[in-house]
Amino acid sequence: MVSKQTYAVVVVIVVVLPSVALAKEYVVGDDYGWTIVYDYEAWAAGKDFRVGDKLIFNYEPGFHNVYKVSGAAAFRDCTVSLANVPLTSGNDVITLETPGRKWYICGMDRHCEKGRQKLAITVNDTLVSVLPPPGPPSSANGIVATRYQALMVGIAAIVLMIMV
Fold first, then answer.
1. Do 55 and 61 contact (CB within 8 A), yes or no?
2. 2 has a pLDDT exceeding 90
3. CATH architecture observed for domain 22-126
């Protein structure tokens, strides 16, 4: 019989592992990095940002920075509250921890206003990413297989091998 502790460990693995295993890292601006006069709206278009994913802002320190701003108005107007502290390392990593709209701007020398150095994204919940949209069943056996389902089968197999 399975102990309560083993069951709890399995539940934690099944809930946490998919978001970690399926998390992506996005280098903002790809090879261009975080810079002025780049179309970050086009860069973000079509990307499926999820809770657990990471944004990596690469830039030359001292020339740019990254501020997370709160709301569409602050983003549109390129305004930063006095309490907001910039990221300045030149290799800033931001883990997307909650779903919803997120806004990032550069606060250096009017880069946001004049150089369009700003990024707005929508972060979706992790659970949605692991559940595919409904589709037609496969002709072989009527089941649509996903990476998530394959991962869960693998985890269950490992747990069963450990317990036996």
1. no
2. no
3. Sandwich (2.60)
